[in-house]
Design a protein that fits this description.
Blueprint: H1 2-8, E1 20-21, E2 26-27, E3 33-35, E4 40-49, E5 55-65, E6 75-82, E7 96-97, E8 103-104, E9 110-114, E10 120-121, E11 127-135, E12 146-150, E13 156-158, E14 161-163, E15 174-176
Parallel strand pairs: 3-15
Antiparallel strand pairs: 1-4, 2-4, 4-11, 5-9, 5-10, 5-12, 5-13, 6-7, 6-8, 6-11, 12-15, 13-14
Length: 180
Amino acid sequence: MAFLFFLLLPNFNLASAAITEIGPPMLGFHENITAGGGSIIPLTKFILQGDGSNALNKIGVTLRASTTMTVLEQINVLALYRESVSKPNFQPNEDIYMGGTFQLNPATSTLYVLQPTGGYAVPSSNTEFYVVASTTGISNIVNGNAFDVQMHANYASTSAGALGTALLSPSYKITLRKNV
């Protein structure tokens, strides 16, 4: 009898995705912000849940100038981190840098591929990831230059396929200023 019940269930699917996105990516800040030289800024965050064996191989992210970026070297580093679970939200001294994702002096309007060395087996618990930028020293900052971040649909490449909801028109931006 239990067998017949199982056969009669409509659209019952025993398969599940090896890695899933838990909600769309979000900005790492909730208002327009001003950053000075040497700032560390969580640009965006996203949450993945896996099966412990399938890996996150790479993600794509674009820095978008919302003003003319007259000096490209104002953004010093772009990198991917994952939550250490010791404290919520991005903590630069506690969260875990994903080796191999370091991009030096990223330009705006360029798609950057952040590729963790060897991939990262996403566990079955929700894992939060952060795309982080740091600004250069004060001498390279141009007051009023600004940027934001974009993540296109299928921004994440995994061993089970591509996934990810687009974040194309962020509500907020980062404005650079020498004296913050």
